[in-house]
Amino acid sequence: MILNLITDFIGGVSTVIVLAQSIKRFHDFFIDKRHIKTVLNFKNKECIITQTVYRDSSSNAKEVITNASMQAFQMLNNMMYKVNYRIVLNSGSLIGKNIIHIGGPAANIHVNALFVGHNYQFEFWTPESDEKTHKGLDLNSKQLKYSKDNTRKFIVGRTELNIIENERDYAIIIRIPNDEKNGIEYSTHVIFGCMANGTLKGIEFFTNNYKMIAKKYGKSKYCFAVPINLIDNTIYVSKERMIDLTNDFFGT
Fewer CB in 10 Å around end: N or C, the chain? Predict the structure, then answer.
């Protein structure tokens, strides 16, 4: 009889544990979705994604999407799937639409136009050997600066972020409140690094750490940088490592 009671007790405890785990998974699932929606801050379920391109002289194609940008696109698509959002094709003007831009003002013409058009406090310093490539992409050079000593760095407002080739990059992650259309608020996101892997790591940080971003910024506009170790290809993941550049970038 005692053995039966012990067996029943163990069975009851096991049932409670399984039930508690199920409730936690159910709770985490909805909390997870809430954090994704907070970070994206989309008011409908459609989003346009623009990608990093480059000119390939060995190809007949005028512009080629980079491999890193395609990987980034898939990460974002997986994130959208969790909240039943969908990516739609760009059919013209980007005004009044939810947008995620992959790549910075030296690699994505949409980001280049966005930064210059709104006069955001940003400069990208890169070796002067890159100038010819940038001109080939019809980029506005207002925020692109060329160094004679092969310096690569971001200057955001009063903050300078120095990139060390094969050692350190920074991912810049930005959310910009977009224009309102029919009373609906839209958001524009921009994610990029100095180099292709920096951009990819920025997308990785964004899609894996939306809870951290949501808790820090809520639905407010933001701009922050995350250091990336290119030696072992890792991101410094912590709230303290998120270098806030919001006031610097927006000039507030």
Answer: N
Domain CATH number, residue 91: 3.30.379.10
Segment 161-202, tens digit of pLDDT: 999 988 899 999 999 976 555 555 678 999 999 988 899 999
CA distance 207 to 72: 10
Contacts of 144 by beta carbon, 8 Å cutoff, 6+ apart: 105, 106, 123, 124, 126, 131, 134
Encoded tokens for 135: 């001109």
The separation between the first and the last C-alpha atoms of the chain, rounded to the nearest angstrom, is 74
Extract the tokens encoding 186.
Answer: 């839209």
127-151 pLDDT tens trace: 888 887 777 667 787 889 898 888 9
- Give the domain range for residue 225: 2-250
The conformational region for residue 126 under phi > 0 = left, psi -120 to 50 = alpha, else beta, is beta
Phi, psi values for residue 188, rounded to 5°:
-115, 130
Give the pTM.
0.82
Distance CA 160, CA 78 (A): 33
Q: How many domains does the chain have?
A: 1
Can you state the angle between helices 210-217 and 2-40, rounded to 10 degrees? 60
Which helix (H) or strand (E) segment is 7 a member of?
A: helix 2-40
Q: Are 190 and 210 in contact (CB under 8 A)?
A: no
The β-bridge partners of 127 are 147
Bridge partners, 87 (sequence order)? 47
CB-CB contact of 133 with 106 (8 Å):
no
For residue 58, the cross-strand partners are: none
DSSP 8-state secondary structure symbol assigned to residue 62: S
